[in-house]
Design brief:
By secondary structure, the chain is of the alpha+beta class. It contains 16 helices and 7 strands. α1 runs antiparallel to α8 and α4 runs antiparallel to α6.
Length: about 575
């Protein structure tokens, strides 16, 4: 990420230089064309007696600069790319045709298309024809621009190599001007690369070279790595210092200050000294960077050791806490298991007590009350003549009958004996019928899946208590007009649904009620779950889902169950 940001910063810093190169690539040839138009020699050759910038060169420079400007952004539009390729092809074609003229010795009559009369008066061996150096540079730069317009990253790398070749040819021409070696920039006095032509090529080839600075060989130079820093520090002095020193030494030798052998020795010595200074300067920079890196590594190592020690300490602490938590969890599980077992024993004891009390009420107290009823009835004929006594016996008979009914109802509420003998479906059917008669609330009872398979005793007891507690709560709180009770034996579980159309309630506000809490505890003891769906004015629906182990089922006789629907 930091590397990408650094490259983006370098690319932003190069944009002004890029614009300057394009501007020079347009302004310099335009001034040369103005020189040809108005006959101003200074605009054509800068140095008197040196080669001119011919019109074809000026025109090719304008085409090259236009192509370079159109390709300034990698996301250029398709139309701009096509126009840039056309300009680059035209510039490369100028260079290619010119080289073909030199190699074949033929005149293709393209040199005097512009300013033909003025070119004929110049006295050049090849009027209006760019030098081979110039033609080669246009061919290289044009090909580089064509590759630069491609979307392939590898093509951009080849474009940079071609631009580097054009830069070296132009640099060679500048060396020729500095050392006064004509063959390096021209083939005759008037046919060669003009000084401002060489400078313009240096600018344009540099712009092409760094147009895509995030890829290719230039990527190393523009990177923020030590290699990039070294390249940026070494390349400019490596080019400029030998160039300047060589020029000064050659001029001194030509002025007679010393002979050429001494000048060559001086050049070698100066080059060695320059390279030594540059190498030492970069070695010092690298040493400084390496020292900083070592300090950073040392600090990082110490920080790593400190963090390792803290991690080890924290790990030991977490291990201790984990062991403590494991012990607490194990203790909690043990206590929870004991609580569940205790609750199961309590429920079992409660049901046994209910069964015993119910049978005692039904068998003993019920028999006593029935005997008392018979004796009261036998006494009535004996006191038929005594009206007050007969009336009291009549009231006693009525009270005894009410007491018998209440005892039977209390025994049924505690635990109906039919639950053990006839099974869950018959008991729930009878219970809902009696509950509807006593409460005056219509009940729809439906059951399925219980015709041939009985549930385990604890499961039947749980289902019966859930229905019983739900109906009791409806009588106390719901003010319902109709109730639906559904008990379904499905593949691997029992589903109990008790739904009413009463006034409803907010479940979160009644979460702590003893009735609901007892229902949840009972369902949880058999591995089930209870959910309450209710809202004020919309009734209440209680759903209990309890798993049934297949091995716990047993067959019953079909005649023991009769499907019914009870309404009131």
């Amino acid at each position: 990420m930091a590397q990408a940001l650094s490259q983006h910063a370098h690319a932003s810093a190069l944009r002004p230089a890029y614009r300057l190169a394009v501007a020079a690539g347009v302004a310099v040839p335009c001034l040369a064309l103005a020189g040809w138009t108005f006959g101003v020699a200074t605009l054509k050759n800068v140095l008197p007696g040196q080669p001119d910038m011919v019109p074809n060169t000026a025109l090719a420079f304008i085409l090259t600069s236009a192509s370079l400007w159109l390709l300034r952004s990698e996301g250029a539009a398709r139309r701009a790319r096509l126009l840039a390729r056309a300009c680059a092809c035209a510039a490369a074609l100028v260079g290619l045709l010119t080289l073909a003229e030199y190699l074949s010795g033929r005149d293709l009559r393209i040199d005097t298309l512009l300013f033909g009369e003025s070119l004929g008066k110049a006295g050049a061996s090849f009027p209006g024809r760019p030098s081979p150096h110039t033609a080669l540079c246009f061919l290289l730069v044009g090909a580089a621009l064509l590759l630069l317009s491609s979307s392939r990253r590898r093509a951009h790398a080849f474009a940079q190599l071609l631009a580097l070749g054009a830069f070296l040819v132009a640099l060679l021409a500048l060396v020729g001007y500095s050392y006064q070696i004509t063959i390096l920039y021209g083939i005759t006095t008037y046919t060669g690369m003009a000084l401002h032509t060489a400078l313009t090529f240096v600018l344009l080839s540099s712009a092409v070279l760094f147009a895509r600075a995030d890829r290719g060989p230039v990527l190393v130079v523009m990177s923020d790595s030590p290699g990039g820093h070294m390249a940026r520090h070494l390349l400019p002095p490596a080019v400029l210092v030998p160039f300047a020193l060589g020029g000064l030494i050659v001029r001194g030798a030509r002025a007679g200050l010393y002979d050429m052998a001494f000048g060559m020795s001086l050049c070698v010595t100066a080059s060695i000294a320059t390279l030594a200074v540059l190498i030492w300067r970069n070695a010092r920079a690298l040493h400084s960077v390496d020292a900083g890196r070592r300090r950073a590594e040392g600090e990082l190592r110490r920080a790593h050791d400190d963090s390792e020690a803290k991690v080890a300490e924290r790990t030991a602490e977490l291990s201790r806490v984990n062991e403590t938590l494991k012990a607490e969890v194990a203790e909690h599980k043990r206590v929870e298991a004991e609580r569940v077992q205790l609750l199961k024993r309590l429920v079992t004891a409660q049901e046994e007590a209910r069964r015993r009390i119910s049978r005692e009420l039904h068998d003993q107290l019920g028999q006593y009350l029935s005997t008392m009823m018979l004796r009261v009835k036998t006494l009535q004929p004996l006191v038929a003549s005594n009206e007050p006594v007969r009336a009291d016996l009549q009231k006693l008979e009525e009270l005894t009958g009410i007491l018998v009914d209440e005892v039977h109802h209390l025994a049924w509420e505690l635990r109906p004996a039919a639950l053990d003998d006839l099974g869950l479906q018959t008991v729930l059917q009878n219970y809902t019928e009696k509950w509807s008669e006593r409460s005056g609330v219509a009940v729809d009872f439906h059951s399925s899946g219980l015709e041939r398979r009985r549930l385990p005793p604890e499961m039947e007891t749980t289902v019966y208590r859930i229905v019983q507690e739900s109906l009791t709560n409806i009588v106390k709180h719901a003010e319902a007009r109709r109730v639906s009770v559904i008990v379904e034996r499905r593949r691997d579980h029992v589903l109990v649904i008790v739904e009413d159309d009463g006034r409803g309630f907010v479940p979160c506000e009644a979460r702590g009620g003893l009735g609901l809490l007892g229902m949840r505890e009972r369902v949880a003891l058999v591995g089930g779950a209870l959910s309450i769906d209710s809202s004020p004015g919309r009734g209440t629906t209680a759903r209990a889902r309890m798993p049934v182990p297949p091995a716990a089922e047993k067959e019953v006789f079909p005649r023991e169950y009769v499907a019914n629907s009870v309404g009131g």
